[in-house]
Amino acid sequence: MEEVVVSATKLPSTRKDIPNSVIIKDSKDIQASGSKTVGELLASEPGIDWQTYGNYGGATQEIHIRGMRGNATQVLINGVNFGAPSLGVADVGKIPVDNIGRIETVKGSGSLLYGSGAMAGTVNIITKEPSRDKMDLKVSAGYGTQNTYRMAAENGMFVIGDFGYYLTAGRTETDGFRDNSWLRQNDVSLKLLFDKKEKIHISLYGDYIDRSYGVPGVKPPAGTQDYYVGGERFYNSESATLLDHSSDKDGHLVLNVKGKPIKWFGYDLKAYYTNLENYNYARYAFDGTGAENWVKNRVLGTDGHLDVYPFEGTLLLLGFEYKDFNWKNQSYGLVASGLRDGSDSTIEAHVFTQGYFMEAEYRPFKYGKAFAGFRHEINSAFGSENLPRVGIVINPFESTALKISHGKHFLAPTLNDLYWPADPYNRGNPDLKPENGWHTDVTVEQSLFNDKLFMTMSYFHWNVDDKIQWEPDSQGVWSPINLAGYRADGIEAGLKVGPFYGVSLGLSYTYTKAEEENRDYLKQDYGYPPDFPPDFQYLMVKRRATMTPENQFKGDLTYKSNFGLTATATLRYVGDQIVYNTESTTYPDTQTVNYTIGSYWTTDLKIEQRLFKHWVLSLAGYNLFDSPYDTRLQSFTDQTTFNTTMCGYPGRGRSVFGSVSYEF
To answer: Where does residue 54 fall: left (phi above 0), alpha (psi -120 to 50 degrees), or beta otherwise?
Structure first.
């Protein structure tokens, strides 16, 4: 209850004093978990669903909070958005965990403080900083199944007086468990720090990630025969695409200056630059034709806030944000041999956003406080949004908190949604409206027995209007449109017990009932109802939300000995999920068919042993019982039989990874 959280209010606040449900992970939690990605680390927490496109090396990994899609979760690194503006989704699989000092996940609407994309919640990743009393120096190497290895090194220290640095570097490779599922990644980060404590704190952070990977697609049905185009093997029974590949070159630079020079006044100012480049080579037609595509995102931004304490028990937060987006999409057509056909398309766009926000909190007595805030957001592509939020926190006892929060959220269309170049298959829609809606959550947190028992339970409700969805038009060309509704109600509960005699237990359960309103096209042979207008082409129908499990359960059992041994067993259950697929793409024959991804259990085990103070040996086993499951579905057409089947992206099978680290 006394843990300090920054992301929920942009100021250091104790957990019991903020109106949101939060998840906090520090560097010790990360190391003990054995997790290799941020999604894997958070997957065992209530309200969090970690979704991937299978288990191949470069598979996109998304965080879904409380049933909303990945683009509704804003992922930040040191307070700056990590996601690509062109996609609107942050791929957390890229982020090396060696660089992370702390993760704060704030559930519920965060649009007041963070603008577009913080509808379901915010994940703020805070990178490591040097310690004043010691030098941090660590090297590690690990190897596992599928010829997977990771080598990493990190070093941090204060060099002279108040000046310090923290440097990390790593290399990851894997062959993957299917054909064309390989990954090669290099990553490096550096944080320079000038720290005069509360007087002034200046940091300059930069990182660079360079990765390339195969894109195997779904796993075709058993018995699928190898298929060749021009002598090249196009697909086989393991992978639907054997020639497709992609690469990313991502860099971030963040300058942060903050301080609290006097008791009643503080400030926090940032300036940042983001450069993201994605290359994609895809032979998507079964005659071997396709396209090479480059998407470049450049973001230049600044944000800041002032915190003023006019009198005892009162806080006024005043902030601003400005972002300038430059987007470029360059594409070349490919002939059946995979060479360029001479056609090319280049489209560029420039968008800027401005946000101004204010939030006030008032604690009239020690048993409770109230919040109220307002944000005005201006987007050059679609206009402006006004975003209010209110909340209260009641603390009847030191170890009890009742939190109620209600606020408006919104999600701007992505640059791909707005400006994707028109071709025979797809085109953007510059007339899109932003998604917007309201989020309400009520949370009770209780700590007992000197924090040996911690319980949390939340009820949440959210709705979204003008949901953006890509659908085919009357000519079969896919384009984004605004639909009607998208809403959910749910309950999440968490329990942490211990440690008692070195044993700790963590349990969590989430129930989410999410629905969406989508198009249901009318077929000609049914005819139009007589009271419909002649030009009416579809109905809006309610249905269970896509890719949202109703039930999730996670359990962790951890044992820590006095001899440096730590062992953690993790059990995870994900309920069934619905996927909708458009079976044909030309009106009026367009129809939607639903498919189910079955529920599944996975069991992981991590063992870590510290030896002779400096050495750390670890061994992790994932999906120990080799439970088969799929993470996504997509159609596959066999070119020898012309049968089309919905196939899955296989999840992680049984795998093992061992590593050794030396800490100086």
So the answer is: left
Can you spell out the DSSP letters for 301-333?
EEEEEEEE--STTEEEEEEEEEEEEEEEEEEEE
Q: Which two tokens stand for residue 182?
A: 């390989």
Q: How many CA atoms, within 13 angstroms, populate the side-chain half-sphere of residue 516?
A: 20
Mean pLDDT (whole number) for 73-94:
91
Longest dimension (CA), the chain: 83
The predicted pLDDT at position 31 comes to: 81
Q: Tell me the per-residue pLDDT of 494-545, one tens digit each, with 9 for 90 and over.
A: 999 999 999 999 999 999 999 998 766 554 434 445 554 444 455 667 889 9
**How confident is the model over 6-35, as pLDDT tens digits?**
888 888 888 888 898 999 998 888 887 778
Q: Give the count of alpha carbons within 13 A of 580, CB side only.
A: 19
Q: Identify the band that residue 585 occupies on the pLDDT scale cut at 50, 70 and 90.
A: low
CA torsion through residues 249, 206, 30, 600, sign = negative
Q: Does residue 203 register a pLDDT over 60?
A: yes
Structure-block tokens of residue 457: 């339970």
Q: Is residue 176 within 8 Å of residue 145, measured between CB atoms? A: no
Coil, strand, or helix at residue 535? coil
Q: Would you state the pLDDT for residue 36?
A: 83
Residue 577 · residue 466 · CB < 8 Å: no
Please say whether the beta carbons of 360 and 371 come within 8 A: yes
Indicate the domain borders of the chain: 4-663
What are the Cα distances from residue 405, in Å, to 10, 418, 486, 494, 626?
16, 32, 20, 19, 41
DSSP one-letter code for 119? S
Structural tokens at position 5: 């959280």
Residue 573 tokens read as 């259950």
Number of other residues whose CB lies within 10 A of the CB of residue 632: 20
Question: pTM of the entire structure?
Answer: 0.91
DSSP code string of 424-469: SSB---TTPPPEEEEEEEEEEEEEETTTTEEEEEEEEEEEEES-EE
Provide the pLDDT for residue 525.
37
Distance CA 620, CA 568 (A): 9
C-alpha to C-alpha distance for 624 and 306, rounded to whole angstroms: 50
Reported in sequence order, the residue ranges of 130-264 that DSSP labels E, i.e. its strands, are 136-144, 148-160, 163-174, 183-195, 201-214, 227-229, 232-235, 245-262
CB-CB contact of 412 with 434 (8 Å): yes
Q: Give the whole-angstrom CA distance, residue 530 versus residue 520.
A: 18
Residue with tokens 């996609």: 87
Q: Summarize pLDDT for 386-429 with one digit per residue, the tens.
A: 999 999 999 999 899 999 999 999 999 999 999 888 877 788 99
Rounded CA gap, 611 and 617, in Å? 8
Confidence of residue 152 (pLDDT cuts 50, 70, 90): very high
C-alpha dihedral over 172, 178, 180, 184, to 10 degrees? 0
Q: Give the three-class secondary structure for 42.
A: helix
CB neighbours of residue 132 within 10 Å: 10
First and final C-alpha spacing in the chain? 33
Which H or E run includes 113? helix 111-114
Count of C-beta atoms within a 10 Å radius of residue 249: 15
Contact between residue 504 and residue 498 where contact means Cβ atoms under 8 Å apart: yes
Task: Check whether the bond before 588 is cis (ω within 30° of 0).
Answer: yes
CATH of domain 4-663: 2.40.170.20
Q: Residue 366: is it exposed, middle or buried by C-beta count within 10 angstroms (0-12/13-18/19+)?
A: exposed
Give per-residue pLDDT as tens, 97-121: 989 999 999 999 899 999 998 999 9
Give the pLDDT mean for 191-205.
Answer: 94
206: tokens are 């930069």
Whole-number average pLDDT of the chain: 90
